[in-house]
């Protein structure tokens, strides 16, 4: 069942990203553009998880899945830091 969800995500998320970016720009919607970025993170996670699982199942590399999971950390940390700094700017502007 998990593989079905991952493959579905691999197929659907690029379409969602495309249209969220397209209409986010067209509507000048920062929220929709941020949602497109969030969907990209989901796609990235899907690719990493699938790669880890495939390496474990096909090559027997038991360590590949945890190492693949570590590949998500730098990107997630970067996005988290960006969200934090943007939130601080909003709070500073309101004071």
UniProtKB/TrEMBL annotation:
Record keyword Magnesium present: no
Subcellular location: Cytoplasmic vesicle, Secretory vesicle, Synaptic vesicle membrane; Early endosome membrane
Keywords: Cytoplasmic vesicle, Endosome, Membrane, Synapse, Transmembrane, Transmembrane helix, Zinc
Family recorded in the similarity comment: Belongs to the TMEM163 family.
Residue stretches spanning the membrane: 43-64
Descriptive protein name: Cation efflux protein transmembrane domain-containing protein
GO BP term (any one): zinc ion transport
InterPro entries, per database record: Cation_efflux_TM, Cation_efflux_TMD_sf, Tmem163
Main localization, broad class: membrane
Entry membrane topology: Multi-pass membrane protein
Domain Cation efflux protein transmembrane: 1-83
Record-linked SUPFAM superfamilies: Cation efflux protein transmembrane domain-like (SSF161111)
Molecular function terms, GO-annotated: monoatomic cation transmembrane transporter activity
PANTHER family in the record: TRANSMEMBRANE PROTEIN 163
Gene Ontology CC entries for this record: cytoplasmic vesicle; membrane
